[in-house]
Each structure stands twice: as structure tokens, then as C-alpha cells.
């Protein structure tokens, strides 16, 4: 499972890090058509809930993308995150990748 926000963040980060644009877009397209991967398209309500979570955590440096992921993972009872991001650990999730 991933979200439309994670996919958008991937494109931005990959391009900033200098990956070739055609490769980044090819991978993005491959993910979109991968039948084994569920993509959740973030709606207005989910976005607003994530903004509220950020308001409740003024001491954290979570991104909006992180907050959306936290909410959807809790909603779906998903505990493991395929990430190196320490913010997931701070929110009580298991980080599957080491930084």
C-alpha cells in the first residue's frame, strides 16, 4: 500500500537528487500500473485530518506526506513501514529499513 502523496514526494526527491527524469517517470508509471500494489488517492478529508495531526505534533518535523501515511496506516492497522524515516518510529511504527 502507498499513497498518491508518497508517489508525488518520490518524484520530487528523485529529481532533486539528480536521478534522470525519464527513469523517474518510467518508475512512477510502472508503480501506477502494478496490480500488486494498492494506491490510495488522498482525498480532501484525509488531507485535512493529516493537517490536524501536524497541528497536534508541534514538536515534530513530520511532512504532510508522513502525516497522511500515519493516519492511513493506523486506519488499516498496518504497523510496518518500508522506510528509513525516523518519524515513523516516533509515531510508533516499525521501520523496516535502516538509514
Descriptive overview:
- This protein has 99 residues and is mostly helical.
- It has a single domain, classed as 5'-nuclease (Rossmann fold, 3-Layer(aba) Sandwich), CATH 3.40.50.
- Helix content is 56%, strand content 8%.
- The chain is built from 5 helices and 4 strands, in the order βααβααβαβ.
- It has helices spanning 4-16, 21-32, 44-56, 64-75, 86-90; strands at residues 2-3, 39-40, 80-81, 94-95.
- The strands form 2 sheets. A two-stranded parallel ribbon has the order 1-2.
- Helix 1 packs antiparallel against helix 2 (21-32) and helix 3 (44-56) packs across helix 4 (64-75).
- The protein is globular and about 40 Å long.
What is this structure, in a nutshell?
By secondary structure, the protein is mainly alpha-helical. It is built from 5 helices and 4 strands, in the order βααβααβαβ.
Beta strands, count: 4
Order of helices and strands: EHHEHHEHE
Strand residue content: 5-15%
CATH class: Alpha Beta
Silhouette: globular
List its salient traits.
mainly alpha, Rossmann fold, two-stranded parallel sheet, 5 helices, 4 strands, 56% helix
Amino acid at each position: 500500500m502507498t499513497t498518491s502523496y508518497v508517489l508525488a514526494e518520490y518524484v520530487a526527491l528523485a529529481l532533486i537528487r539528480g536521478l534522470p527524469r525519464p527513469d523517474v517517470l518510467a518508475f512512477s508509471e510502472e508503480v501506477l500500473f502494478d496490480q500488486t500494489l494498492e494506491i490510495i488517492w488522498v482525498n480532501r478529508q484525509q488531507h485535512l485530518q493529516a493537517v490536524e495531526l501536524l497541528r497536534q505534533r508541534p514538536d515534530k518535523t513530520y511532512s504532510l506526506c508522513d502525516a497522511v501515511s500515519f493516519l492511513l496506516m493506523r486506519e488499516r492497522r498496518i504497523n510496518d513501514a518500508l522506510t528509513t524515516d525516523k518519524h515513523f518510529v516516533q509515531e510508533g511504527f516499525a521501520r523496516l529499513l535502516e538509514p
